[in-house]
């Protein structure tokens, strides 16, 4: 129990963590929501053909950091500038997350995750500039999304382990299950990468006037993506069943059931959008689903072990 310090404030014994205020959780949740939101915002830019709404970087047009009335890009300049503005919001929230972790949960792995998100936001800003300057080359567009997905994973990890202590992790499942779970994550990375190639080979290149695409046959690359998804589903089912049939806590099975449900929903949306010629609404929903899958998969990995609070 805490005692009373010399100035009337609560004094906590050495090794006892001070209570974490609610604002800490709010900041870390905002950090995660912002990272997911920028993926949806970027998808909106791409699907509306607004990728070059601000044709230069870091300025929107030569001589101005904001859109000007004389621009020929019309509504596209507003959409693209809005997406750029969100990067400033991400930066502020990421800085707050680093501050919150250092102040209330100074655990090394949490510090690493928080700093990773902050540095990643800066990398994303630079990569966004490269994407504009290369006129939406599909490789840079794909990299832009994949970096965002990685930052979603880091922000999700930070959220899910926010209350953990600095002790050694205790595995809640057999080590083989853990290995298969990490293999599942590796296949997920392949699925996401192939997904960017599918999008980069389709009609939604990011700019309505000067489309930039990989040049692959959309049908072939779509089926390759679907094959990877099938493998991913099989691995998710295997991990889920292993957690259900073992002595692992119920929360572990619940986490992997969520991964499975999100995966199946993503698969359904993917097939429907393919069969309906890629309507913008479904493509945007699919991009949000990809971010949701990263969050669910991160939770699944975290659920496999526990670390006691200090």
TrEMBL record:
GO cellular component: membrane
Pathway linked to the protein: Porphyrin-containing compound metabolism
Compartment(s) where it occurs, according to its Swiss-Prot or TrEMBL record: Membrane
Principal subcellular localization: membrane
Keyword Ion transport found: no
Keywords: Cell membrane, Disulfide bond, Heme biosynthesis, Iron, Membrane, Metal-binding, Oxidoreductase, Transmembrane, Transmembrane helix
Residues annotated as transmembrane: 27-47, 86-105, 112-133, 139-160, 180-201, 221-242, 254-275, 281-302
Membrane association type: Multi-pass membrane protein
Keyword Cell membrane recorded: yes
Molecular function, one GO term: oxidoreductase activity
GO biological process: heme A biosynthetic process
Domain of life: Bacteria
Protein name: Cytochrome b561
